Amino acid sequence: MATIPVYSPVIPFLGLIPGGLQPGRMIRIKGIIQNHGERCQIHLQTGAALNPRDDAPLHISIRPHEFVIGRNSIQRQVIGAEERHGGCPVRVGESFDLLILAETTQYKLAINGVHFCTFSHRLPLFNVKFISVSGGCVIYSILSEADSSIGSLPSNPYPPIVHPPAAPYVPPTVGFIPQAPLPPPPPYTPTPTYPIVGGGGGHYPGQGWPPASVPPPPPPQPAYPHPVYPTAPLHPPAVPFSVLFKEELQAKIEQIKGKPRNY
After folding, report:
1. Which of 36, 89, 90, 149 has the greatest count of CB atoms below 10 A from its CB?
2. CA-to-CA distance for 35 and 137, rounded, in angstroms?
3. Structure confidence at residue 148 (pLDDT)
4. Dihedral of CA 164/168/173/178: which sign?
5. HEC profile for 123-187?
């Protein structure tokens, strides 16, 4: 079994990553896909088994004919959900330079010196010990950050993003916006025509109210005479019905007694 760094390895290739992957360490792969319809498969594995394959925290599938670079993971021979957004900067017949940077929470991938994508960890990073490459591709070299052949390659090709300082938080104004106080009204100045006299609360000049020029009120008018109606005659009190019936009955009897009998 080979140990990286390696140059022009025979494909398929399986190699040991000295010390495994740790945050801040990089793997750099240079190669080419010469024929249309071919692909390049790269696995960062926890073990050396290929069939069935050991767990692969990161699987990269470069497929120029589909214009896709898939990123995935394999756990217990089960392939996870593939991430494939971003297209495929790798072209058939053109050399590619793939850089894989391991970070605490994710991998960062750069192709030909340009950042391409990220892939969040699905399996622990410290378990990665091996790398395998297969498919219809030609590999020129597989290097790691500790190799002197990387030369002037920076330890982190992805400079940190510097955000401008945020503006201080100003809570929103709720309700009415306070306004500047209004100026006080000017002092009251009486007009020359009606000066204020003697604390009378705005009386006109003279002897008070009403002014002398106003005529006296008219004398009171006599009240409207009401007609006097004569007193209505008094009616005798009502006689109860029982008494009236008794008197009529008695008169009827007396009338009958006074008439002679006809035999």
Report:
1. 90
2. 8
3. 40
4. negative
5. CCHHHCCEEEEEECCEEEEEEECCCHHHCCCCCCCCCCCCCCCCCCCCCCCCCCCCCCCCCCCCC
100-106 contacts at long range (C-beta below 8 A, 24 or more positions apart)? 100/26, 100/27, 100/28, 100/29, 100/44, 100/58, 100/60, 101/24, 101/25, 101/26, 101/156, 101/157, 101/158, 102/21, 102/22, 102/23, 102/24, 102/25, 102/26, 102/128, 103/23, 103/24, 104/23
β-pairing verdict for 106-111 and 95-102: antiparallel
Residue 238 is predicted with a pLDDT of 62
Amino acid at the residue 77: Q
Structure tokens of 139?
């590999």
Query: Under DSSP, is residue 253 helix (H, G, I), strand (E, B) or coil?
Result: helix
- Phi first, then psi, for residue 243 (nearest 5°) are -70, -45
The residues of the chain scoring below 50 in pLDDT are 147-159, 196-206, 263
State the Cα–Cα distance between residues 82 and 151, nearest whole angstrom: 34
Whether the CB-CB separation of 118 and 100 falls below 8 Å is answered with no
**List of E strands, the chain:** 2-3, 6-7, 13-16, 26-32, 40-45, 56-63, 68-75, 78-79, 95-102, 106-111, 114-120, 130-135, 138-144
User: Over the stretch 6-63, which tens digit does the pLDDT of each residue have?
Assistant: 999 999 999 999 999 999 999 999 999 999 999 999 999 999 999 999 999 999 999 9
Give me the pLDDT at residue 6, please: 96
86 in helix, strand or coil?
Answer: coil
